[in-house]
């Protein structure tokens, strides 16, 4: 409960609250000015002459200015809150991802994408544009009634006041009636984006399995269900507009007209007209209801979705490493682990790991599948926080609260490489944006792939296409090595870099790593004897601890 309140506080910033008040004030001021215009029209009918006309014009212009203020302030505030919320969601995602090294709490990426786009926009539209205006709209009938009761006729004011509770009751009834349609539509949208993202990601697999037609039909069905849900929502909206706007306005205006006729002994003709015109303003909350289904309900559902995401718990026990012991750091070591533990939440995987990798050293780690090698790499890379013990990378103590810093200390080559759609140069510059052509060729040379790229007609400007279809897996892996070398980080973390490549590429990768100058420190996970041969030291990860292996001479 406290957590939910905390999250609500963080998803609606103090500035956001102030903006809501400003937007509401603009709406209130605009309505008061419209009321001023209507009352001035009444005065004109009663012979108020030029003065009444001038007031009517002043009020009208002011009402327009306030309405403009409401729109522009609300829009600007919504965009600012959107930016803030997106950052908040990303930070949360990063915090969860660093703790689990997988999709946090099972949140599919599509849900996060929906949250950062659709939900964020709906929430800010609701909070920054709609909410303040609605609060003001609720106050407007009371102000109008107060004015009618005091300045025109208390009896008319009293009778109309009795009719007013019908409005919130009607609103509430319709809200309940269509709540299901709104959440149904949101669910359908979420599912559809999940399916689309899945299909796009697995396009190749789908094609190879010949499942294209079936997936296309499924997406078509889901799209249809989504369309149906939106149509039901829109139908609800239309019913509300017709029933609320038409029926309520008609009833209220007829009643006030009847009242004005009955009270004609006490009211001037101008006052009767003013009362009838002012009655229209009593329906101000209804104008807001018309927007409730799209903005209000969508915004509230989005708020709930974002709140529950922000409240989700970090997977695995919390980190207990304190970044102390500055004197403990040995600046001749690039990796220094002492009694490091890690538990993904299902029992300890690392149970007191000690490791020292000297600057310029080449250390290999082996271990059976599931022994915890990737977990250990994750800690050194800064994607997982160590839980207990001391850990330092490139001379800096790993602070579990500031893993982004750790992530900038090493460069990794994984088992298989993901290439971005774009040119080879684009893919290299991801590591260092300002890298020159010479530097790129130098890195490619070291990674033993320069000659093959030089033979391509467009060389560095070769487009890799979807899934890097124009190069082989071995070439992609060597470009990935070049990318790591280009990053300027001197600690290279290699996770089975040759496990998915052909024999020739494997030989070239091993040759490339073996020939790197000793400026680079290399820590690799590998089972390949050929890579083990170039290591200065090797360790086996077994039962959560590292044991030294004797290397064949
Ligand atoms: N995010 C996670 N959540 C829960 N358990 C996990 C998670 N990641 C890894 N594990 C578990 O931790 C243990 C060690 O996994 P890890 O991937 O570190 O082993 P590994 O030695 O790298 O295995 P492989 O050689 O197969 O890649 C395994 O039992 C694995 O199931």
Automatic annotation (TrEMBL):
<dbReference type="InterPro" id="IPR036640">
    <property type="entry name" value="ABC1_TM_sf"/>
</dbReference>
<feature type="domain" description="ABC transmembrane type-1">
    <location>
        <begin position="20"/>
        <end position="298"/>
    </location>
</feature>
<keyword id="KW-0547">Nucleotide-binding</keyword>
<feature type="transmembrane region" description="Helical">
    <location>
        <begin position="129"/>
        <end position="150"/>
    </location>
</feature>
<feature type="domain" description="ABC transporter">
    <location>
        <begin position="335"/>
        <end position="551"/>
    </location>
</feature>
<dbReference type="InterPro" id="IPR011527">
    <property type="entry name" value="ABC1_TM_dom"/>
</dbReference>
<keyword id="KW-0812">Transmembrane</keyword>
<feature type="transmembrane region" description="Helical">
    <location>
        <begin position="53"/>
        <end position="74"/>
    </location>
</feature>
<dbReference type="Pfam" id="PF00664">
    <property type="entry name" value="ABC_membrane"/>
</dbReference>
<feature type="transmembrane region" description="Helical">
    <location>
        <begin position="239"/>
        <end position="261"/>
    </location>
</feature>
<keyword id="KW-0067">ATP-binding</keyword>
<dbReference type="Pfam" id="PF00005">
    <property type="entry name" value="ABC_tran"/>
</dbReference>
<dbReference type="InterPro" id="IPR003439">
    <property type="entry name" value="ABC_transporter-like_ATP-bd"/>
</dbReference>
<dbReference type="InterPro" id="IPR039421">
    <property type="entry name" value="Type_1_exporter"/>
</dbReference>
<comment type="similarity">
    <text>Belongs to the ABC transporter superfamily.</text>
</comment>
<dbReference type="InterPro" id="IPR003593">
    <property type="entry name" value="AAA+_ATPase"/>
</dbReference>
<dbReference type="InterPro" id="IPR027417">
    <property type="entry name" value="P-loop_NTPase"/>
</dbReference>
<feature type="transmembrane region" description="Helical">
    <location>
        <begin position="273"/>
        <end position="295"/>
    </location>
</feature>
<feature type="transmembrane region" description="Helical">
    <location>
        <begin position="21"/>
        <end position="41"/>
    </location>
</feature>
<protein>
    <submittedName>
        <fullName>ATP-binding cassette domain-containing protein</fullName>
    </submittedName>
</protein>
<keyword id="KW-1133">Transmembrane helix</keyword>
<keyword id="KW-0472">Membrane</keyword>
<dbReference type="GO" id="GO:0005524">
    <property type="term" value="F:ATP binding"/>
</dbReference>
<feature type="transmembrane region" description="Helical">
    <location>
        <begin position="156"/>
        <end position="178"/>
    </location>
</feature>
<dbReference type="InterPro" id="IPR017871">
    <property type="entry name" value="ABC_transporter-like_CS"/>
</dbReference>
């Amino acid at each position: 409960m406290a957590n939910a309140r905390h999250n609500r506080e963080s998803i609606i910033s103090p500035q956001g609250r102030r903006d809501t008040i400003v937007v509401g004030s603009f709406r209130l001021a605009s309505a008061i000015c419209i009321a001023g215009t209507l009352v001035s029209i009444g005065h004109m009918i009663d012979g108020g002459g030029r003065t009444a006309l001038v007031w009517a014009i002043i009020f009208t212009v002011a009402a327009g200015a306030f309405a403009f203020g409401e729109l522009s302030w609300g829009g600007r505030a919504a965009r600012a809150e959107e930016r803030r919320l997106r950052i908040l969601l990303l930070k949360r995602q990063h915090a969860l991802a660093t703790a689990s090294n997988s999709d946090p709490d099972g949140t599919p990426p599509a849900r996060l994408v929906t949250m950062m786009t659709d939900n964020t926009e709906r929430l800010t539209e609701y909070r920054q544009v709609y909410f303040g205006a609605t609060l003001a709209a609720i106050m407007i009938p009371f102000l109008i009634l107060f004015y009618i009761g005091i300045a025109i006729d208390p009896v008319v004011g009293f009778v109309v006041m009795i009719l007013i509770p019908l409005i919130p009751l009607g609103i509430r009834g319709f809200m309940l009636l269509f709540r299901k349609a709104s959440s149904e539509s949101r669910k359908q949208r979420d599912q559809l984006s999940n399916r689309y993202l899945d299909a796009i990601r697995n396009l190749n697999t789908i094609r190879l399995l010949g499942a294209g037609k079936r997936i296309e039909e499924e997406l078509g069905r889901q799209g249809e269900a989504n369309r149906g849900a939106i149509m039901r929502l829109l139908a609800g909206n239309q019913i509300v507009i017709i029933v609320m706007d038409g029926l309520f306005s008609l009833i209220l205006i007829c009643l006030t007209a009847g009242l004005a006729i009955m009270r004609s002994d006490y009211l001037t003709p101008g006052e009767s007209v003013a009362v009838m015109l002012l009655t229209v303003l009593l329906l101000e909350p209804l104008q807001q209801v018309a927007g409730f289904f799209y903005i209000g309900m969508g915004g509230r559902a989005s708020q709930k979705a974002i709140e529950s995401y922000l409240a989700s718990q970090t997977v695995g026990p919390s980190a207990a490493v304190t970044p102390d012991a500055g004197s403990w750091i040995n600046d001749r070591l690039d990796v220094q682990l002492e009694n490091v533990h890690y538990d993904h939440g299902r029992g300890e995987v690392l149970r007191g790991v000690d490791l020292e990798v000297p600057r310029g050293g080449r250390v290999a780690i082996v271990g059976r599948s599931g022994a915890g090698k990737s977990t250990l790499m994750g800690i050194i890379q800064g994607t997982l926080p160590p839980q207990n013990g001391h850990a330092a990378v490139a001379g800096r103590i790993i602070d579990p609260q500031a893993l982004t810093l750790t992530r900038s200390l090493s460069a990794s080559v994984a088992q298989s490489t993901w290439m971005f759609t774009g040119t080879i140069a684009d893919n290299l510059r991801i590591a260092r944006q300002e890298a020159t052509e010479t530097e790129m060729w130098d890195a490619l040379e070291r990674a033993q792939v320069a000659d093959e790229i030089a033979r391509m007609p467009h060389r560095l400007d070769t487009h890799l296409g979807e899934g890097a279809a124009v190069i082989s897996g071995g070439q992609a892996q060597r470009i990935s090595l070049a990318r790591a070398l280009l990053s300027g980080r001197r600690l290279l973390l290699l996770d089975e870099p040759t496990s998915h490549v052909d024999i020739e590429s494997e030989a070239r990768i091993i040759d490339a790593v073996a020939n790197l100058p000793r400026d680079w420190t290399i820590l690799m996970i590998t089972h390949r004897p050929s890579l083990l041969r170039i290591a200065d030291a090797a360790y086996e990860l077994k039962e959560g601890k590292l044991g030294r292996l004797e290397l064949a001479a």
